[in-house]
User: Fold this.
Amino acid sequence: MRAQGEAFRLNKRFAGRKPGALDFDDVAMALGVLVIPHGVSGAAASLVRGKEGGRIRLNPKIKEEGARRFAIGHELGHWLIHETESQMFVCSATDLRDYRDSPLEAEANHFSSELLMPTVLFRPLMEKAEPDLNLIKEWALLFRASLTAMTLRFMRDSKHDCIAASIKNGVVDWSWRKPDGRRVWLQSKQRIEPGSLAWELHEGRSVPEKMEVVDSTSWFRHLPFEFSGEVQEQSFYMPNYNTIFTLLWIS
Assistant:
């Protein structure tokens, strides 16, 4: 894909030979783009292309380094690849998880993902790995990426069928399923139910920090067919966001 190729060339140009080596602010400056850590509300980031260069503005609520780096990478994807499409992009948090619905946003995400987690460095780590948020957290720290970005990257490259979800106030805020996985899904604003580890966390109880087999109906009761597969779940509470992050492994 063009996006991955552009990111590969940029990593090579700036000698990004180790995980997390690139300084995205410096890369942006070298490309003629100034990163401003404020100036956007109601969106995650924006890009404006002008005669004297570009301006990336970030939502000041983005505090986590990995999320900030991914947002910058996303806008740099627009800067390098979409010059003829628009002179301004305003990108929401949903856009930064879109690998399918909007061709432009998906391309910018593929670019950012490759810039942040180069295939040549990432794939040898995960080729034989099973779904495990503890391991994905370690990789996120290594690559200076967010847990979300690293989880979605693992899911896209892994042979295992998974669904990731962020849960807020007891309901699914957003979910992401492997594009070529089994035809099961979570509903938007779906309430979590007893029998899931996420529900236990929501109720203030402790849960194992590893994959556990759970009752599939606690997640897939809404399906228009009877789901007969096994579901394993791993869930963590994320205090900085007051959310629960869940990875479901389906077999």
The first strand starts at residue 33 and ends at 36. The chain has two domains: 2-120, 160-250. The beta strands are 33-36, 45-50, 53-58, 88-91, 161-168, 171-177, 212-214, 231-238, 243-250. The radius of gyration is 19 Å.
